[in-house]
Write a structure and sequence with these properties.
Length: 312
Amino acid sequence: MTHIPLALGTIPFGTAVDDGTAFAIMDRFAEAGGALLDTSNNYPFWYDGATGDESELAIGRWLASRKNRDRVVISTKCGARPTVPGDRTLGSAEGLSARAVETAIEGSLRRLGTDRVDVHWAHIEDRSVPLAETLGAFDGLVRAGKVRETGASNIPAWRFERARNVARENGWTPYSHLQLRHSYVRPRPGAPLRSSGHTVVNDDTLDYLREEPGVTLWAYSTLMSGGYTRTDRPFDPAFDHPGTTRRLAVLREVAAELGATVNQVVLAWLIGGSPAAVPIVGASTVEQLDEALGALDVKLDDELRARLDAVS
C-alpha cells in the first residue's frame, strides 16, 4: 500500500470530537492518500467520563460504515490501559505481561471491528516483566495473524535495541517501529515534562536510528498541542530556554520565505529529516487536517534545512 508519510492521531474521536466530525476528518485523510490511523486501547482514559474505549470504537464505526478496512493501516497500543475504573493516572496500567498483551489485542480487535491490527505497540515500558515474555507474546500474535508488525513507544534507544536483540535471538518478530515525542523545538536536557509518560527523541535516539535499518520512527506531539501558533497554548516549561527562542525565530523566517505556515514547516522538517519521521497529526476539524496536509507540498532545500538544523 502506498500512502502519504503522515499518520492521523485519533485521541479525541468519540469524545471531544463527535462521529460526524471524526468521520469527515478520516474521509478527508483517506481522500488525500492517508492510510495510517494511530490510536490506543486507552484513548482517552484521562478525559472526564471516558473509559479508554472511545477512540478505537469511533474508528471501528467508521471502518464499518466505509467498508474500507483493506485501505487503512491501523496502529494501536497496549500496556497503558487502566485496570481500575476511573483511574486517570498510569498507576493501575495493565502492563506488558503475556496475559495483558494477549487480552489487550482481543479488546482492540473487538472495538475496531477487525480481525487484525497492522502495527501493535507496547505503549509504555514495563520493567517488571522480562522482555522475553512481552516479545514472545507479541510474536504469538503475529503468528496467529492478529498482528502484522510490532513496535514500542516511550522507550529509550538502548532498551529498544535490547528488545530487538532478544527477539532475534529467539527467532521472534522484532520491533520495527519506534514511537516517541518529537518536534522541532526540544526540551532542556533532563528537564521533567508535565506529561510524565512521554519520552522525547534525543541525539542518542537519532544516532541509533541512522545506523539501524528497518526501523520506522513515528513522532507524536509534533505540533506541541497548538503551541507553535496559539498564544493560549504555551509550551511545557521544559521548553522554556534560549534555544527554543532561537529555533522559533528561524522557523518563522523559513515559513515566511516559503509562504507556508509554521506548522507545515515543522511537519516538512520531520518528514525529510535524518532519520525521516512519520509525524502523527491530531486534528479536531477538517480545516486543521487540511493545514497539515499542506506540509506535503512544502519543500525544504538543503540550504533551508541546514539553517533549521544549525540552531541550538
